[in-house]
Amino acid sequence: MESIYWVLTWACHRRCRHCYEDRFRPYLRADLEAVVAEAERNAPLVLGNLPKRMTYRDPGGPDLPEKMGRVIISGGEALLEAVRERVTYPVIEGLVARYRDTGGVKVVLQTTGDLLTPAIVREVAQRGVWMISVAGIDDFHVGMEGEAKRPPSRRRSRQ
After folding, report:
1. Rounded distance, CA 79 to CA 61, Å?
2. Of 25, 41, 119, which Cα lies nearest the Cα of 87?
3. Structure pTM?
4. Angle at 9 between CA 6 and CA 13, to 5 degrees
5. CB count, 10 Å around CB of 151?
6. Cβ neighbours of residue 39 under 8 Å, at least 6 residues apart?
């Protein structure tokens, strides 16, 4: 298996017009807890049903070497505080453990990017994330238009 794309949760902190899934939206209070609890319940079930190996061979014959496959985890937004500790981190750890003795796996974390901090980058790297894929720091994403996408320290003053 070359790649699996795993949507961990429906919870997102944005309401982007172009989003392809109407369940990706901000959830509040009890609704957020319900969405996170659903993801928390489902994660071990999904993990238990993934292929035994995450390796593959390019087309061309059985003599080609096996390559390490990848699991791309995303949301909604997998780095939301309500999701990160309860779902995302256990899933990353579970993937690394599951494939440790069968050729490994490249874990890719897909995020909007605006919730990334140096601490979170360290935490996901320590857990075994191979790559962080950022899709969302541009003018097409709600809350990131124009000056809003710049860090506060780099925004132009409005004088």
Report:
1. 40
2. 41
3. 0.82
4. 125
5. 7
6. 8, 9, 10, 11, 83, 86, 87
Give burial (CB, 10 Å; 0-12/13-18/19+) of 39: buried
Mean pLDDT by 10 residues, the chain (159 residues): 94 76 75 94 97 92 90 94 96 98 96 92 98 75 54 52
3-state secondary structure the chain: CCEEEEECCCECCCCCCCCCCCCCECCCHHHHHHHHHHHHHHHHHHHHCCCCCCEECCCCCCCCCCEECEEEEECCCCCCHHHHHHHHHHHHHHHHHHHCCCCCCEEEEEECCCCCCHHHHHHHHHHCEEEEEECCCCCCCCCCCHHHHCCHHHCCCCC
- What residues pair up with 70 in beta bridges, in sequence order? 3, 106
